[in-house]
Sequence to fold (374 residues):
Amino acid sequence: MGEPSPQINPAPAASASSANVFVGREPEMVQLKTALESTLAGQGRLVMLAGEPGIGKTRTAQELASYAVERGARVLWGWCYEEEGAPPYWPWVQAIRQYAQETNAQQLRAEMGPGAADIAEIVPDLRTKLTDLQTPPALEPEQARFRLFDSIAGFLQKASQTQPLVVILDDLHWADRSSMLLLEFLVRVIGASHIMLVGAYRDVEVSRRHPLSQTIGTLVKEPHFQRVQLSGLTQQEVSDYVENITGTTLSQQAAEIVYRRTEGNPLFLGEVARLLGSADPVEEATWANTIPEGIRDAIGRRLNRLSDQCNRVLTTASIIGREFDFAVLKALLDDIDEGGILESVDEAVRAQLIEGASGGTDRYQFSHALIQQT
Fold:
């Protein structure tokens, strides 16, 4: 995605077929708008948007961004990068760079103050606008980091006095540790400010050892922290979503099938809607039993992060059905000892690909029907 201009287009574009589609999420939007109103009143907030891949975290953040601009706030975006090679503080670099590009040099110099030189160490673009910046003095790493954090905090607080700020950091599950430390620092100083920080992340990719998990464990103690969990859309919302994309109204039977297949995941819905738009309506049985390539790819990326043994265990479990007993699974995997199977099951549970099922402690089910079928 390209970086947005919050004054003109407050959010990055979604996929072509669903860029303007937003249904449901009323309770979540109430929480987000309430947090924004608190920010506008001078009580800074941090909101973490959590959910599985494709559940609509970015799209929900876009909706918040549009509302924030309407309410007079300035929106900055930053994204984390999945592959190696991104510099430290990358999402913050993007957000600050965006602000600098949209702000004249005189205002930027006044808002950054003496900390501009420190901020330029991670956002070198600043030197093209603030040409008289000096090189900061050499310090020990811990001292230099504190000075950087303090400079960024002072800048954001000063800037928010001119116009309230909403800083949205997407894909935080890929964030580096330095970015997380800066987030922890800022949360402690925004309480009496016009700054709202929003982080979006895939909770299925955040294990207990993940840097973000450690950060959330720290942030949850802060009084102005809140977490908004996104789940699947309802059956009626699924029907509305598909109608918005295809322009056609689903029959009740078709709506039930789509809901059952996608479990309200907007990414999956978009793929199914494209399939519906290209398929012969009378061949409902065909698309009802087809997994679109986009969905296969999305699920495949999650499976690729698992160990080979875990993938093999899941493949065997999928043969049993969406629900399976551990005893049956063990019988089919006689070349893997019980400890190894348990380890793989635990790995899949941590990845939220399977979960405990009703009917006993040794009974499991795939968290989504499409995962079992993939």
About this structure: Residues 13 and 317 are 38 Å apart (CA to CA). Confidence is low (pLDDT under 50) at residues 1-16. The domain at 26-229 is CATH 3.40.50.300 (Rossmann fold).
